[in-house]
UniProtKB/TrEMBL annotation:
One of its GO terms (molecular function) is S-adenosylmethionine-dependent methyltransferase activity. It comes from Mycolicibacterium duvalii. This is Methyltransferase type 11. Keywords: Methyltransferase, Transferase. One of its GO terms (biological process) is methylation. CDD domains: AdoMet_MTases (cd02440). It comes from the Bacteria.
Amino acid sequence: MNETVDNPFFARLWTVMSTREPESLRRLRRQNLAGLTGRVLEVGVGTGTNFEFYPDTVTEVVAVEPEIRLAEHAKEAAAQANVPVTVTTDTVEQFTDTRPFDAVVCSLVLCSVDDPDQVVRSLRAMLRPGGELRYLEHVAGTGARARLQKVADATVWPKLLGNCHTHRHTERTIENAGFTVSDARREWTFPKWVPLPVAEFAIGVAVRS
Ligand SMILES: C[S@@+](CC[C@H](N)C(=O)[O-])C[C@H]1O[C@@H](n2cnc3c(N)ncnc32)[C@H](O)[C@@H]1O
């Protein structure tokens, strides 16, 4: 079980990066949260970049962020949010709540947990029947990009970027956890020719049946 997340370099970097996101990514964040209602769990919220995009039909967001430097920023963002947001510094592996959630949000986080299969299964168990996992995650590519991702993952990328892994088959992980995927697509946040390992995103809605 992952009990702590302590990434001082990444926390400083992400604090800057999250204020300078391309409009293409901000648009996907908005789409990922559109139409949500009720009680929502968001996993690994970082600086709380998603908070401004929650529709007012959401009654409560429980926000998990174990990196304490990022959690401080998330608490500031929570105070400005249009919906009630509570930030907890548990890891997702530690987090428990006896009341089921209407939705769970994962954005740019399943790349960073040690065991995504286990985490997604535990998130499914925290949803009410019919509840939704909303995901927006960069994913494994093919061809030259896949080769670039594998090299990145085997060298400095996870060490510098808070355990981020670029070559993960996250859609498969979600399906294998027993979700029914009702809406799924791939999007590019940078032109395809840009040699970045994290330009292709999967966005979708997965339902706990
Ligand atoms: C790339 S950032 C993305 C932040 C945010 N989800 C967003 O969309 O901007 C990854 C986040 O996952 C968090 N994280 C990493 N491991 C985690 C874990 N085991 N449990 C919960 N959060 C975790 C990190 O602290 C970091 O805030």
